[in-house]
Automatic annotation (TrEMBL):
InterPro entries for the chain: Ntn_hydrolases_N, Proteasome_alpha, Proteasome_beta2, Proteasome_bsu_CS, Proteasome_sua/b, Proteasome_suB-type
Pfam families in the record: Proteasome (PF00227)
Gene Ontology biological process: proteasomal protein catabolic process
Organism: Kalanchoe fedtschenkoi (Lavender scallops)
PANTHER family associated with the record: PROTEASOME SUBUNIT ALPHA/BETA
One GO cellular component, as annotated: nucleus
UniProt keyword Disulfide bond, yes or no: no
Family statement drawn from the similarity comment of this UniProt entry: Belongs to the peptidase T1B family.
Localisation: Cytoplasm; Nucleus
Main subcellular localisation: cytoplasm
Protein name: Proteasome subunit beta
Keywords, alphabetical: Cytoplasm, Nucleus, Proteasome
Oligomer status and interactors: Component of the 20S core complex of the 26S proteasome. The 26S proteasome is composed of a core protease (CP), known as the 20S proteasome, capped at one or both ends by the 19S regulatory particle (RP/PA700). The 20S proteasome core is composed of 28 subunits that are arranged in four stacked rings, resulting in a barrel-shaped structure. The two end rings are each formed by seven alpha subunits, and the two central rings are each formed by seven beta subunits. The catalytic chamber with the active sites is on the inside of the barrel. Component of the proteasome complex.
General function of this protein: Non-catalytic component of the proteasome, a multicatalytic proteinase complex which is characterized by its ability to cleave peptides with Arg, Phe, Tyr, Leu, and Glu adjacent to the leaving group at neutral or slightly basic pH. The proteasome has an ATP-dependent proteolytic activity.
Amino acid sequence: MECVFGLVGDGFVLLAADTSAVHSILVHKSNEDKIMVLDSHKLVAASGEPGDRVQFTEYIQKNVALYQFRNGIPLTTSAAANFTRGELATALRKNPYSVNILMAGYDKDVGPSMYYIDYIATMHKLEKGAFGYGSYFSLAMMDRHFKSNMTLEEAVDLADKCILEIRSRLVVAPPNFVIKIVDKDGAKEYAWRNSVGDAPAEALQA
């Protein structure tokens, strides 16, 4: 019952993801962070099989860091998304990764951007997107309430609406969510939305 969604606002991108690690009918933990910081100005939110999700996102993170180390400049968000898409396309013909990705970033000359990349190496630049069972409801909420150039407060309010709708509608809804943003000041954690107690203590105030 994974839920990952994101939207582009005025000068930032917001990503949100559930934090449940599940297998079959068992919940192993409810504080699994599924949004990885790729570098200072990039985030990647992933859903899919836990092993593939962790292995592939770490692989992309290390290769983005390697490029910057070798060349002295970071990849743009577009370049990182195209690299990720290329790796998924290569793996698709050998040993496919069951992982879906929303990649968000901020580039000085371009501004904020978000890319949808699924497990069969489809890539598209979007202003709003989602993966998982929660996408049925979060996409519906964003279709109704999303507008271009939203403020951070409006975007967070819309994310909360999506989370509330997912919790209300899914028969087995994930209890906790993490929200992260990336803007001109970098990628950072914004807040947790909790309904069970094994999230980080500092997040309980959210």
